[in-house]
């Protein structure tokens, strides 16, 4: 009986040791200072990205007050965590709002700030989204051809480093710019190039956006049957991959075409 009690006692002590080891380290001072600081930085980064994503949603919902509150908080957390990549993301997002509001000097200032943070990362790929934003700014001020030239400068680098998503995004932007210039054949060429790269990779939402873009080009050139076909393919892709808001947009486009 005595031996049984000793065994039970040892089991209880072992259980308590395991419990303490796994459950009472994060916030009770057992971790050293550097490890605790690192854990806090992870939380701050996560909050920063969550808030920036929410801010983008608020921007598309035209709730500018909420957007500014969320993006201000996001930038604060990124700065506390010394997360330069996060700051690039946040500054680029803020620049998008200012471009949409025709506040070009403010947009230019935040694009410059994003580029300064990207310089600290020593990775050219982080500069590509910023340059796409610079192209948006140039286009918004009527410099469409200059915007195209800026994006084209990056295409060889993207191909060489197999940065397919950024290459697709760049081709899509070039197509949109050629639409603004009224050069629909070139717009169609770049849109199809982007779609062909996108389709086999499973980027379903981006693929549906490109189909919608192609449908828009056909509509502008009075090829209504082809426009309907492209929008129908986009709707199908959005429906079966559960993108309800994008799917609603496809229904709206199709209704306008049939109307």
Summarize the structure.
By secondary structure, the chain is mostly helical. The chain is built from 13 helices and no strands. It is globular.
Description:
This protein is mainly alpha-helical. It contains 13 helices and no strands. The longest helix is centred in the N-terminal third of the chain and has 28 residues, at 33-60.
* Average pLDDT reading: 85
Tell the overall outline: globular
Order of helices and strands: HHHHHHHHHHHHH
- Stretches where pLDDT is under 50 for at least 5 consecutive residues are 15-37
Distance between the termini: 89 Å
Radius of gyration: 25 Å
Percent helix: over 70%
Give the percentage of residues in beta strands.
under 5%
Number of H- or I-type helical stretches: 13
């Amino acid at each position: 009986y005595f031996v049984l009690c000793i065994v039970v006692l040892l089991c209880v002590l072992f259980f308590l040791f395991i419990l303490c080891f796994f459950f009472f380290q994060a916030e009770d001072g057992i971790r050293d200072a550097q490890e605790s600081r690192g854990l806090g930085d992870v939380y701050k980064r996560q909050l920063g990205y969550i808030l920036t994503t929410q801010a983008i949603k608020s921007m598309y919902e035209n709730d500018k007050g909420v957007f500014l509150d969320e993006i201000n908080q996001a930038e604060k957390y990124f700065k506390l965590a010394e997360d330069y990549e996060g700051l690039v993301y946040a500054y680029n997002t803020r620049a998008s709002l200012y471009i949409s509001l025709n506040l070009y000097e403010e947009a230019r200032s935040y694009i410059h700030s994003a580029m300064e943070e990207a310089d600290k990362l020593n990775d050219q790929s982080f500069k590509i989204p910023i340059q796409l934003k610079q192209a948006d700014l140039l286009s918004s001020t009527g410099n469409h051809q200059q915007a195209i030239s800026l994006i084209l400068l990056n295409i060889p680098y993207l191909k060489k480093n197999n940065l397919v998503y950024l290459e697709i995004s760049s081709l899509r932007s070039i197509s949109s710019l050629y639409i603004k210039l009224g050069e629909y054949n070139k717009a169609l060429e770049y849109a199809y190039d982007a779609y062909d790269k996108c389709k086999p990779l499973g980027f379903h939402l981006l693929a549906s956006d490109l189909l919608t873009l192609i449908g828009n080009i056909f509509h502008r050139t009075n090829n209504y049957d082809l426009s309907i076909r492209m929008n129908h393919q986009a709707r199908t892709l959005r429906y079966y991959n559960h993108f309800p808001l994008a799917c609603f947009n496809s229904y709206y486009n199709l209704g306008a075409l049939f109307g």
